[in-house]
Specification:
Blueprint: E1 2-4, H1 6-18, E2 25-32, E3 38-45, E4 53-57, E5 60-64, H2 66-69, E6 75-82, E7 85-91, E8 97-98, E9 104-106
Parallel strand pairs: 1-6, 2-5
Antiparallel strand pairs: 2-3, 3-9, 4-5, 6-7, 8-9
Length: 110
């Protein structure tokens, strides 16, 4: 379902080591917002919902709620650094339109 590039794996593991709770998992979520309508949210959490789907990728547990899962099929997450700093990059074949910053998308042509 979701692929992580080697640089994304390294960054998630680096951030996880800095988290105060070693049992925290990586959450990937879609929420309304951003200039294209939907935004990616990434964070570490310690509690799962009974409806969460857990995806294992290179030793990383990724929790996804059912609402977000519909937008994330075949998503690839990369991490890159540039003059503005580092950030995750999302390559989503389900997106019909993405904003220039790369963290917002839409699934319908507007």
């Amino acid at each position: 379902m979701i692929e992580l590039s080697p640089s994304a794996i390294a960054e998630i593991k680096r951030l996880h080591k800095r988290h105060p709770n070693p049992s925290a998992f990586f959450r990937l979520q879609i929420a309304p917002g951003g200039c294209a309508g939907l935004s990616y949210i990434t964070k570490f959490e310690t509690e799962l919902s009974s409806s969460d789907r857990i995806h294992q990728c290179h030793g990383i547990q990724i929790a996804i709620d059912p609402h977000s899962a519909q937008y994330l099929d075949n998503l690839t997450i990369d991490f890159s650094e540039d003059l503005m700093g580092g950030s995750f990059r999302f390559h989503n074949p389900n997106a019909k339109k993405s904003c220039d910053c790369g963290v917002s998308f839409s699934v319908n042509e507007s």
